[in-house]
Prior knowledge:
The chain is of the alpha+beta class. It has eight helices and eleven strands. It has helices at 5-15, 29-59, 61-66, 86-96, 112-116, 135-146, 198-203, 207-222; strands at 70-73, 76-79, 103-107, 123-127, 130-131, 152-158, 161-167, 170-173, 176-180, 187-189, 193-197. Strands 5-4-6-7 form a four-stranded antiparallel beta sheet. Helix 1 (5-15) runs antiparallel to helix 2 (29-59) and helix 2 (29-59) crosses helix 8 (207-222). The longest helix is centred in the N-terminal third of the chain and has 31 residues, at 29-59. The chain is globular, with a radius of gyration of 18 Å. 36% of the residues are buried.
Amino acid sequence: MKIILLAVLLLTACATQTHKPKEHAEISEAHKEEWATETKKWLRDSDRLELVSFRVLTKGGDYCRKLDHTAPYLGVQFWSNQQLQPEWREVAQSKLNLGSEPQISFVVPSSPADSAGLKSDDKIMEVNGVIAQTVPDTLKMINEAAATGNPVTFTLQRADERKMISVTPVMACKSKVFMGNEYSINTAADGEVVQVSRGLLRFARSDEEVAAIVSHQLAHNARKHQ
């Protein structure tokens, strides 16, 4: 689960403009299309990293368990338009169908979330009966519920249908893997997080190479290296 996906909307918007738009400045249709296209590309890169990371984090569970570096894992990412400047929220709504409520951006195939039936674009209304207002609050509720080992129940809106789906987490390596937006060839670990730059992700010729990079940094975290 990642909240960094929210940053893509802000970062990509900045990357596609030469200056910060003035308040209430009109955004051209061409600029809107460019922003939406770049955001979708960012998501594809981020989804690739999450898919590779899922294999590493779950397959490395026994290794991390011996080092007391495990946590519940669901395999789902969320985003919303709430952290955008007001003029970009409407663009996100019209071009990406992204509203103010927490919304699923990616479900990892074969993950607990996928097996339970969660789908991309599902809008999260409640987590274990508590209203989900923001992505950070949603993630906090999920983490607190998952830490007990019990299923996490989502009340969600899918098109015109409201559904309740329970997801039982699996134990995996604790580190969270994020994609940095910079195009440098770089990776880092800080004990809890593994960050892989977008440039390095694109430089890697195969998913196996990406997995090796994530595994290396994960081992640093699990062994509490400085």
